[in-house]
Design brief:
The complex is a heterodimer of chains A (284) and B (334). In chain A, α1 packs parallel to α5, α3 crosses α8 and α5 packs across α6. Chain A has a single domain, classed as Orthogonal Bundle (ABC transporter involved in vitamin B12 uptake, BtuC), CATH 1.10.3470. Chain A has eleven helices and two strands. The longest helix of chain A has 32 residues. By secondary structure, chain A is mostly helical. By secondary structure, chain B is mainly α. In chain B, α2 packs across α11 and α4 packs antiparallel against α9. Chain B has one domain. The two termini of chain B are 29 Å apart. The longest helix of chain B is centred in the last third of the chain and has 27 residues. Chain B contains 13 helices and no strands. Classes of the chains: A mainly alpha (284), B mainly alpha (334). At the A-B interface, α4, α9 and α11 of A face α5, α10 and α12 of B.
Chain lengths: 284, 334
C-alpha cells in the first residue's frame, strides 16, 4: 500500500512537472502581453511530434531531433504571435482569448494533417533509472524535473534582474508608457511567445519518451497547465510551478478512487478557485 | 459601439414575416436530389436556436460562454434519460429538461457571472469541458456508447418520419425563438442589457440591475440551449443520443457563428449559423468527391482559421460587413 502511494507520488510529480513547465510558459506570455494563451498545450504537442517525426521517420540522431522539436516550436510560437496576436493587440481580452482557442484548433488539426494521427515515440535521453526509497525512477523523469527546476530559476532571475525581463514585465503593466521609454511592445510580445514556445517545446521533447505524443494530446496538457497557472495565481510563475506539481500528484491519487474523472477533477478545482480565490492559492 | 437606433414599427413586422415566408417556402424546394439538405436544415435550425441565445449573451450583454455545447448536451441528456431510464412520459421529459437547463444555467451563472472578461471565459470553458467529460464517461449517460430507443416527438402522427415535417417543426420553434428574442432586444430590458455591454458601471449608476440582468440572460441562453438539446434528442437523431455532438469544438463553432454574424444582431447570428452549417456540408461533400480521408481535420483547420481571421481582421463580423458593403454599392448606384 505504502509502496503504491510512493509510486503514485513519483509519477504525479513527473506528470506535474510538465504541467509546471506549461504553466510557466503561460505566465511568461501573460506577464508580458496580458494574453491568456490557451494554445500553450498545442506548442508542447508540436515540440514532441516534430522531434518524434525527425527521429522516427527521418532517422535523425536524437540530439538533432530534440533541437528540431525545440527550434520548430519556437518558430511556431513566433509565427502565431506575428499572424494572430500582434494584429489583435488592441482588442478586448475576451476576444484575444477566443483567438487563442481558434489558434489551438488550427495547430491541432494542422499537426494531424501534416504528421498524421499515429502517436510518435522517442528514445529517452538516458535509459534506465535508479531505485530511490523503493521506487524505480527513470532517468528521463529526473531530466524532466531538472529542466523544470532550471527553467523556473532562470526565468525568475530573468524577470527580476535582466533588463529584457524587466522590459517585458513593463509591457504588461503599461504598453503605452513602455513604448515611451523605448521598449517596443511588439518586440516584447514576440520575445514572450518565442520564450514560452521554447519552454513548451522542451516540455514536449522531454515528455514524448515517457508518454509518446500524438496530435490530440496537446489540448488536455494545455488545460492542465493553465489550471496550474490559475491555481498558482495568474502572473505568479513560481506559484504556478508548485500548483503544477500539486495537480499532478492529486490527479494520480484520484486514480485510486476512479480513473474516469481525472480531467473533471482538475477543472472543477479550477472553477472553484476562480470563484472563491481568483488570485490563486499561493499568493497573499 | 453606438447606442441602438429606435426601430420603426414597419421594421418590427417586416423581418419576422419575410422570415416566416422563407421558412415555409424554402424547405419545399429541397426535393429529389436535394432531399439530403433536409436533415442539414434541421441541425441548422438547432444551431440557430443555440446561437440566438448566445448572441443575446455575447453580443448584447457582453458576457462570453465558451461552454455552450455543455448546456446543449445537458438538455438533451436530461430529456433522454427522463424518457428512458426514469420512465417519464414524453411531455414530462421535455418540460423537465427545459427546467433543468434553466436551473443549471441559474446555478452556474449565479457563480461564474461574478467573474469578468478573461476569467469568465475560462470558467465557462471549464464548465463546458466538465459537462462533456460527464456525458462521455459517466455510467448514467451511457458513456461513449450513448442512449438508445429514445421516443420521438409526435403530435398524432406528425412529424412522424418525414424529414420535411421535422424541418417545419424545428424551424417553427426557431421562428418563435427569434421573434421573442427580437422583441426582447427592443424592450426596455433589452436596451438595459445593451447598456451593460456598453459600460457596466455607467449602467449600474443609471439604475440598471446589472448582475440580475446578466443572470437572467444567462438563464435564457441556458434554457434555449436545453430547448435545442431536447429537439436534438427527440427530433433530429434517429432515436439515439451520443456524446460526440457536445464537444468543445461545438462550443467554439457556436462562438464562431456568433462572431460571423457580427456579435450583436439576432439576424446576423441566424445567418452565421446557417452559413457555418452550409460550409460544413460543402467541405464534407468536397472531401468525399476528391476522396480526401482527413476531411474532418481540414474542416477544423478551416473553421479555426476562420474564427481567428474574423476576430483579427474583421471583428465587426462578416455578415454586417458584407451587408454594409452591399448597401454602399446600392446607394451609390441609385
Amino acid at each position: 500500500m505504502q509502496e503504491y502511494a510512493a509510486i503514485l507520488c513519483v509519477k504525479g510529480i513527473m506528470i506535474g512537472s510538465i504541467y509546471a513547465l506549461i504553466s510557466l510558459g503561460f505566465n511568461v506570455i501573460y506577464r508580458t502581453t496580458g494574453v491568456l494563451n490557451l494554445a500553450q498545450g498545442e506548442f508542447v504537442m508540436w515540440g514532441g511530434v516534430m522531434a518524434g517525426w525527425a527521429h522516427g521517420i527521418m532517422g535523425w540522431p536524437l540530439g538533432g531531433a530534440i533541437l528540431t522539436g525545440v527550434i520548430g516550436t519556437v518558430l511556431v510560437g513566433l509565427v502565431v504571435d506575428q499572424v494572430a496576436i500582434r494584429p489583435a493587440r488592441g482588442s478586448a481580452p475576451v476576444v484575444q482569448i477566443i483567438i487563442t482557442v481558434g489558434i489551438s484548433i488550427v495547430l491541432r488539426s494542422m499537426a494531424a494533417l501534416i504528421w498524421g494521427t499515429e502517436p510518435y515515440h522517442l528514445p529517452p535521453i538516458q535509459g534506465g533509472g535508479v531505485h530511490f526509497l523503493g521506487v524505480f525512477l527513470e532517468y528521463q523523469s529526473l531530466w524532466l524535473l531538472g529542466v523544470v527546476a532550471v527553467c523556473m530559476t532562470a526565468l525568475a532571475l530573468f524577470f527580476m534582474y535582466a533588463r529584457l525581463g524587466r522590459a517585458m514585465r513593463a509591457c504588461a503593466e503599461n504598453a503605452e508608457a513602455s513604448r515611451l521609454c523605448g521598449v517596443s511592445p511588439d518586440r516584447m510580445s514576440a520575445m514572450a511567445f518565442g520564450l514560452s514556445a521554447l519552454l513548451a517545446g522542451l516540455g514536449g521533447v522531454l515528455l514524448t519518451p515517457i508518454l509518446s505524443m500524438s496530435f490530440d494530446r496537446g489540448t488536455m496538457l494545455g488545460l492542465k497547465g493553465f489550471s496550474a497557472a490559475i491555481l498558482g495565481g495568474l502572473g505568479h510563475p513560481i506559484g504556478g510551478v508548485f500548483s503544477g506539481l500539486f495537480l499532478g500528484v492529486l490527479e494520480q491519487f484520484s486514480v485510486w478512487y476512479s480513473s474516469v474523472y481525472k480531467e473533471t477533477l482538475a477543472l472543477s478545482i479550477v472553477v472553484l478557485v476562480l470563484l472563491f480565490r481568483p488570485r490563486g492559492l499561493f499568493t497573499r | 459601439m453606438k447606442p441602438p437606433e429606435p426601430t420603426s414599427p414597419r421594421q418590427v413586422y417586416q423581418g419576422p414575416l419575410i422570415f416566416l415566408g422563407l421558412i415555409i417556402v424554402l424547405p419545399l424546394l429541397a426535393r429529389g436530389q436535394y432531399a439530403y439538405l433536409l436533415p442539414l436544415a434541421q441541425i441548422g435550425g438547432l444551431y440557430a436556436i443555440l446561437v440566438t441565445g448566445l448572441t443575446l449573451l455575447m453580443g448584447f450583454t457582453g458576457q462570453v460562454s465558451l461552454g455552450h455545447a455543455g448546456f446543449y448536451g445537458f438538455g438533451a441528456y436530461v430529456a433522454a434519460l427522463a424518457a428512458t431510464s426514469w420512465g417519464m412520459p414524453l411531455a414530462g421529459a421535455v418540460v423537465l429538461a427545459l427546467i433543468a437547463g434553466a436551473l443549471l444555467a441559474l446555478m452556474t451563472g449565479f457563480m461564474v457571472l461574478r467573474l469578468k472578461g478573461n476569467l469568465l471565459a475560462l470558467a465557462t470553458l471549464c464548465l463546458g469541458i466538465i459537462l462533456g467529460e460527464l456525458f462521455n464517461k459517466s455510467k448514467i449517460t451511457g458513456g461513449a456508447a450513448g442512449l438508445f430507443d429514445l421516443p420521438r416527438i409526435d403530435f398524432w402522427g406528425w412529424p412522424g418520419k418525414s424529414a420535411l415535417a421535422k424541418v417545419y417543426l424545428v424551424w417553427a420553434v426557431v421562428w418563435i425563438v427569434v421573434v421573442l428574442a427580437l422583441r426582447l432586444t427592443m424592450s426596455p430590458a433589452g436596451r438595459a442589457i445593451q447598456a451593460i455591454h456598453f459600460d457596466e458601471e455607467a449602467a449600474a449608476a443609471l439604475g440598471v440591475p446589472v448582475f440580475a440582468l446578466k443572470l437572467k440572460i444567462f438563464v435564457l441562453a441556458g434554457f434555449l440551449a436545453a430547448l435545442a438539446g431536447v429537439l436534438y434528442a427527440f427530433v433530429y437523431t434517429p432515436a439515439y443520443l451520443g456524446p460526440e455532438e457536445f464537444s468543445l469544438m461545438l462550443s467554439v463553432m457556436l462562438v464562431t457563428m456568433v462572431v460571423l454574424g457580427g456579435m450583436g444582431s439576432i439576424w446576423g447570428g441566424l445567418i452565421g449559423a446557417l452559413v457555418t452549417t452550409g460550409l460544413h456540408e460543402v467541405i464534407t461533400l468536397a472531401g468525399e468527391k476528391i476522396g480526401f480521408t482527413q476531411i474532418t481535420r481540414f474542416e477544423q483547420l478551416f473553421f479555426g482559421a476562420l474564427l481567428v481571421g474574423m476576430l483579427v481582421f474583421c471583428p465587426k463580423g462578416l455578415v454586417p460587413s458584407i451587408a454594409r458593403l452591399g448597401l454602399r454599392r446600392w446607394r451609390r448606384r441609385t
